[in-house]
Amino acid sequence: MTDNNHYAIETRGLNIFYDDFQAVKDINLQIDPKRITAIIGPSGCGKSTVLRAFNRMNDFVPSAHATGEVIFHEQNVYDPEVDAVQLRRLIGMVFQKPNPFPKSIYDNIVWGARVNGFRGSNDDLVEETLRQAALWDEVKDDLKKSALALSGGQQQRLCIARALAVRPEIILMDEPCSALDPIATLKIEDLMRELSRQYTIIIVTHNMQQAARASDMTAFFTMDEDRSGIMVEYNETSQLFTKPKDKRTEDYITGRYG
Question: Which of 63, 68, 105, 128 could form a Cys-Cys staple with 13, CB 3.0–4.6 A?
Fold first, then answer.
């Protein structure tokens, strides 16, 4: 783990509510830069809610509000002066279901970059990001083709390339492989590993094998008595899966949960 001044992003006493319901309670999570951190746990324990707190995607849910802090660049992202649009440029998101724009492969890459002020060569940007997303060789002769004509796995890699095109520091991935077959899933995992050399990656997954294979650090969440999500344990992935410190973690990863 890095020292306290060099986390990529950190939550301090984070609580998130939907109206009166407390979805997550007192989350303290320190994310190391240029590593892959997985968040695992049963359905309804607040994994995606916490992930969306990192770039304030919960702002789009009218009933949601947060207390505590999410520290990025030494500032709480919930401070009034923080520009949420700029924040989401620096902290990109890849969703559960591939969601390419109904545009060409080429335009999927350059559209967001243009909106965010990119003034360089569009052709270079498209090639660079598609190469980063391990998609260039498959689509380089079909860049004007609709992105919707790609396979599910290709669409998800295109969405990753699209996120990379705006030059983020952190990439959030919310169940990015749940709609994909095993071969496409392994391609995404290999891609995550490659990208973690340059980017901080935080992934929510129900797939414990995926967390074990792909991540450096793992946080296990569950629900307490009032159904609020809590973080039980956070450790190096190899340690959490082989020597969990909490019986609830052990029960979950061995299939005895619930």
Answer: 68
Tens-place pLDDT, residues 147-192: 999 999 999 999 999 999 999 999 999 999 999 999 999 999 999 9
Domain ranges of the chain: 4-253
> What CA–CA distance (Å, rounded) separates 39 from 133?
22
- CATH of region 4-253: 3.40.50.300
> What does the CA dihedral 64, 43, 53, 231 come to, rounded to 10 degrees?
110
**Which residue is it, tokens 């992105």?**
147
pLDDT for the residue 1: 37
pTM of the model: 0.94
- Rounded to whole angstroms, the Cα distance separating 50 from 242 reads 25
Name, in order, each residue with C-beta under 8 angstroms of 219's C-beta and a sequence gap of 6 or more.
Answer: 29, 37, 38, 39, 40, 231, 233, 234
pLDDT at 112: 84
Identify the residue whose tokens are 């569009």: 122
